[in-house]
Amino acid sequence: MSDHRISELVLTDPDERDIDWLKQALQSALELELFTIPPYLTAFWSVKNHRDPVAVAIREVLVEEMLHMSLVCNMLKSIGGQPRIFHRDVVPRYPSPMPGGVKPLLTVSLEGLSKQALGIFMKIEEPETDIAHMEMVRTTKSYARIGEFYDEIKLVFDTLDPEFSRDGQIEAYFGESQLPNGKYIPKNIGSLEDVEAAIDLIKDQGEGTSESISDAETRELAHYYRFKEVAVGRKLIRTENDRWVHQGPEVHMPECWPVAEVPPGGYEQKKVPADTWEKMVDFDIAYTKMLKQLDIAWSTGSHTALNLAIASMMADLSRLAIEIMQVPIKGQPFNYGPCFRFVDKESS
Amino acid sequence: MEVLWNLFNGIRGAWGSDACRTEDMASQWREFIQLKVVGSPSYFEHYRSACELLSELRQTHGDRLYQYLFFDGELHRHPDARLVEFKRYVVDEFIRVYVSLGGFRSFGGKNYTGFVSGSRYRSQRPYRSYEGT
Amino acid sequence: MAKSKLDFDYVIIGSGVAGAIVAKRLLDHDASASIAVVEAGKRVPLKDRRKWWDFVSTAANPYDDYHDLPIESENQSVGKEPWTFRESRLMGRGGSTVHWGGWALRFKEEDFETCSRTGRGADWPIRYQDLESYYDEAERWLGVSGQSRDSNGVVFPPRKSEYPLDPFPFVEADRPLIHAMERLGIGYGHMPIARFRKCMTTGTCRYCPFGARFTAAYLLDEIEENPRFTNFTYFEQSPCEQLLTDTKNRVHAAELNCTRTGKRIKIEGKNFIVASGAYESPKLLQRSVSTDWPNGIGNDRDLVGRFLISHPFLHVLAEFPSNANRWNQELDFPTLMSRHFDSPEQQAYGKLFLFKDRGRPSIDLAKLMIQGKTRAQIERASMGPMEIELQGFMEEFSIFENRVSIGTNTNRIGLPQTNVDFSRESDFLDRVASRLEIMKQIVKDTGAKITKAAVRTQRGDHSASTCRMGHSPATSVVDPDLRVHGVNNLWVCSNAVFPSGACVNPTLTLSALSLRLSDKLIRDGGAA
Fold it and tell me: Do the beta carbons of residue C238 and residue C259 sit within 8 Å?
């Protein structure tokens, strides 16, 4: 099944973009945000020392991805849509291209942190122009970047000026609530200004703006550049003539569990030691439950459900994943990793 | 619900600033009301009576309703027991909820009792921290 | 192994941190082990959003009803020093870890040699090194955040591992005390605190909506939710009336009073572990009277319940004229602490563990709003005078005369009244004065004006030593493996077994002892 929804949405005649277009686009954006989380989590967990600056950088990216996901859900709710999170067709599978036909040549898989994995992460977050090199990153023009897609969404919001409702949204506490200058980050979406602020935040944190690669207020690098620092092996610094160059302190690749690329469909029971298999199943169940809680959170406005989802990600999932990652695959120089499978018949 | 939400917004009107907005407290406030109504002891009667009172008081005080409620009325020692209860179970609790959900920001600081400030695993601290020097 | 409904491999009396850890560890080793955990109190609803909202909006504490009442019929203080319980323990599922602050500190090497080094109190029959690996593990169980090195780069007590989780950075308001300690050359560090990764810094740690602060109740939840632990039974609201022996050296049953049903039941077992805290553990032994044990089990030498100690609480309050930066503690626990005076040099005078008050500086914005203060008035108040308080625990030495015993009444959950006979030693006030001088010097250096320096009325928190461990039955109640002298299948696992209490919170040390006891039981198969 090839999924071109986003490419198709972007190609839709601007005059034909209505509220349904917007709902579909936001659902696709939600799936994009969801899609990035398991690969980043796998890379994060594979770093043995979670205090390593590289692990810390990935973790920050993860928190921001979750914030983006919550903002997209709220945008969808604000125009009367219902985010779909807990559904077999929505849950990402790996290895796979990104959903919606974004960057169809890029295949993303679940694997431990490596230079290769970083290269893929950079491609996910890739800006139009890498201003640390002042050269165009993109070579073909036929596909939408994520940022461009969000720009389109913003434009359609502006054009349609839909009726907003603040009901049923969940103002999640991931990431910042307030910028250092005291300005709020709109977590509940109820106006075009809120939409604009939310989309700007998503774009700036992901790929940076064309003028700046770091947030002027927080001095945080956009995701793309944070990954690139590790890939290049040098921190970005600003030169006297105001250019960004990779000439800062060295960034070392941390020691990682050598987590193999998870095969399509995940590992098979017969090829995995029994106790590791048990953990993989527990992981998949916990993951599925987490998605279900997120779905409940945005369908009933339940903070209890949101808290359960977060607690599960920070406790059960990480514990099981790290245990699985320590098990070597027989006859290979690699270890197992969690499969992030959707379990259809999870109990309760 | 809308009457109560207006009251909650009135609190921001009286003490708030650009540093916080009630829209970003909406889902938590709504959860608060729902749990107070369905859980035990139920606040249903308190809230129902509050709506009635607010509509009566609106007639008397018009635009100065919130000025009366929050500053001038001395509701906690009002001879009308309904007003005393309204102040205690509705107004005062709303004020505490408002402060905890971010209203404190108008008076400085990054975190406050009851505010979900977020994970400490971020370069930006969830509270004002001492980083040496 | 098929068991009758009321016959168990292990009967654990008490569901606090000790009982829960032992139960969990035994079940992790053998999922089919038949274990009973017996709890006198009820179950505090945890992670309940309504309760949390009530806590935020009305300050109603969800576990108020689980504390001792401040009335004579519940507890009696008969010594020269008034002994208050207030909120010093929680009687219910999970025990005091349901309300604790989560400060998780290790004792230091010299704390295990109190008597040899000071001539007072008692030595432990084990050393720090015997516990070190269990401390590592306990920190993982409890999810402790901390940093090994203090500001002077000193690591004490010695440890091979880093803390499982990073420390919480100091709050901005720690600055004056940090600077003062730096000027005075006093080492300081991060308070090790039991908060799991999922902590969202809500500032309502006493009732965490995320369950991010460790409590033993979560271990019991894990046990009860695990379908593999088929032979685990939890007895709720069932104060243990007494332990019954069939021969002098063997306990065969525990008699429970199920207060919900009014029924008395007898549960039998191979091994009995009393994990009921420093008050109820000795009281249970004292009231388990038989012809074999006329003074209660293990009490032939009248040592059960004696040597009661706790931590005197010292505090120095001070005020700055203004708070231009509107500092606020912003967290519900202290981030700054110092073990500089928790040292071998200070041991004979009473070691001193220092920390900044978790409640200051603070401003109750909602209260001012409720009082009808305007925005401008609150602005002024929030930048007005700022209080800080340096607080400390002082080590106390145990003496024979200070004791816990059973009163004549019964408290509201069905436990016999606690009778505390406690008096201070003659040099107590001198030692307090010298400790307060140290604290005053630090606070004075911040530039703040000291408004109070005193020792608080003694409370029952951190009580210990009432069934202390030792090699000889002549001087101790339990042996180095925590087994009651003279009984083959009865252990005490509680702060009660600490021969000395150091000057830091006891929970981590108790957790380490619980893990050590579990391993011992697993290795030896108990007494079976």
Answer: yes
Q: Would you call B56 helix, strand, or coil by DSSP? A: helix
- pLDDT of the residue at A172: 82
| Residues of chain A numbered 207-226 and touching chain B (CB < 8 Å) | 218, 220
Which residue shows structure tokens 């950088």? A57
Q: How far is A42 from chain B (nearest CA, A)?
A: 17
* CB pair distance less than 8 Å for B119 and C175: no
Please give the pLDDT value at position C2. 44
- Residues of chain C positioned with their CB less than 8 A from the CB of A314: 196-198
CA distances for C337 relative to B53, C349, C396, C445, angstroms? 51, 20, 19, 17
Task: Write the DSSP string, C302-349.
Answer: S-TTBS-B---EEEEEEEES--TT-----SSS--EEE-TTSSGGGGGG
Closest Cα partner for C274 from C8, C11, C9? C11
CA distance B126 to B122: 8
Q: What is the pLDDT of residues A15-41, one digit of tens each?
A: 889 999 999 999 999 999 999 999 999
Q: Model ipTM?
A: 0.97
- Other beta carbons within 10 angstroms of residue C132's beta carbon come to 18
- The answer to whether residues C244 and C288 touch, using CB atoms and an 8 Å cutoff, is yes
First to last CA, chain A: 30
Amino acid at position A109, single letter: S
Put simply, whether C166 touches A (Cβ < 8 Å) is yes
Contacts of A186 in chain B (CB under 8 A): 23-24
Please report the pLDDT score of residue C434 as a whole number: 97
Rounded distance between C-alpha atoms, residue C267 and residue C265, angstroms: 6
pTM for this predicted structure: 0.92
- Using an 8 Å Cβ cutoff, are B105 and B19 in contact? yes
Strands (E), chain A: 129-130, 135-136, 237-238, 244-245
The two three-digit tokens of residue A129, written as one number: 């122009």
Q: How many residues does chain C have?
A: 528
Tell me the shortest Cα–Cα distance from B23 to chain C, in angstroms. Answer: 19
C247 contacts: CB under 8 Å, gap ≥ 6: C292
Q: Over the stretch C29-69, which tens digit does the pLDDT of each residue have?
A: 999 999 999 999 999 999 999 999 999 999 998 998 899 98
